[in-house]
Amino acid sequence: MARSVTVKDVHSQAFIKAYAAHLKRSGKLQVPSWTEYAKTGSYKELCPNDPDWFYVRAAAIARHVYIRGGVGVGALAKRHGGSKRRGSRPNHHANDSTNVMRKVLQGLEKLGILEKHPDGGRRITAAGQRDLDRISVQIVSAADAAAAAATEASA
Q: What does the mean pLDDT of the chain come to?
C-alpha cells in the first residue's frame, strides 16, 4: 500500500533544493532583472553568491506558505531576516527586503501556486499543493531507491 507523502514529511533542505531546481527547469517563474545586483536585505553587505538565489527563495516561501497559510509580506520579511552588524554595539535583528518577498509572492501567484487569502496574506492553492506534494513524493522515492541500492551493495 502506497503511503501519502506531503511537504511536511520531507526534510526542508532537500525539498527547497528540489523545488528550486523544478522552478528553474520549468522556466515559468519570472525572475526580475535586478536580482543579479540586489542585496536581499539592508543589513547585508553583499548580494548573494548563488546566481539561482531567487529560485531558492521562491521555494522556501512556497514551503512556508504551504505549512503556515495566511502569511503576508511582513511576516516573510521577518522570517528571512538576519542579524544587523552594528560595529562594537550589539547586533540587532533586521528584516529582509520586502520587495524581494513581494516579487516572489507575485511570481508564485502567476504560476497558480499561491492565492490571496480573504483574511490577508497568501495561501496555497489546490494546484499548488498538488505540485509541492508531487515534488515531495519524488524526493522520498529517490531516497528509498538510494537506500535499496545501498543495502544491495553491502549485501
A: 92
The span from the CA of 50 to the CA of 107, in Å, is 19
pTM equals 0.90
CB contact at 8 A, 107 and 92 = no
Contact 76, 69 (CB under 8 A): no
> Cα-flanking dihedrals φ and ψ of residue 4, to 5°?
-80, 140
CA atoms of 131 and 21, how far apart (whole Å): 13
pLDDT at 61 over 50: yes
Work out the average pLDDT over 84-105.
Answer: 95
pLDDT bin (cut points 50, 70, 90) of residue 2 is low
Distance CA 91, CA 112 (A): 39
Angle at 8 between CA 93 and CA 123, to 5 degrees: 70
- Helix, strand and coil in the chain, % to nearest 5: 55, 10, 30
